[in-house]
Amino acid sequence: MLQMMILSLKLDAILMFSVQDIPVMQKLCLILSKYARFIRGSSNGARPLSIMFSGGKFRYADAFGLASLQRVFCSSCALRKAVPENPVIVDVGANCGQFNHFSHHYLGASRVISIEPEKESFGLLQLNSARAEDCFPCAISDKQGEVTFYVARESSQLSSYVFEEGCSYKDAYAVPMRRLDDLMQDLGIDHVDLLKIDTEGSEHHVLLSASETLSKTRMVLIEMSIFRKSAANLFKIGSFLEAAGFVMVEFSCPRGGQPRDADALFRRV
To answer: Which architecture, in CATH terms, is 2-268?
Structure first.
């Protein structure tokens, strides 16, 4: 708990002093709302809450949604200088739309394709997206069909179709599986400026389904497993992307305790 509080306070400082072009009062409102939700309790029943941030309304169900929104802005604000104007972004593992909101309202994305199989998160994702028709309730893998999706009790952000021993799950149900290449072809996407993948252990399966998509992708932002059950660890994912013509330009790992995963940004050579 102490480590979480220290990390939270560090993110507060980053948001206030490093994330540019967002009104100070909006930053303070997000920070205070985050702590208020943790104090009052994480659940808000069936009615989502909302907050104005970075020029748009963000809907969320609990404090984890707000904390995750803050973390996205703090960890990814430098992308503003890396992506072109009006980028096309694909978000695999979109949760309730934190990265979608960031992409539209901070990166100025012209289009964001968001993919999220968890039912409750998908409902919020549609509300947070500028184009609900660009949201898809499926899992991405190198195979098509159906797969059992496990909903984590602690937070929906830890949910996955990769079952992890020791993780507490509150629900499990079948969700459709699609290949990313097939989905991009159906949508007529001819280029991707940023492909973000955060699927709690199945990232390698996503990459295996995306050979054509990767060939027309400029940058990949991906979560890579360290000490957790996954389809592949950070070494295999890094080697896969290097073989596909990318080079790692950024790497970050959570501090405090034994890390489960790390984030890496790859750029096409």
So the answer is: 3-Layer(aba) Sandwich (3.40)
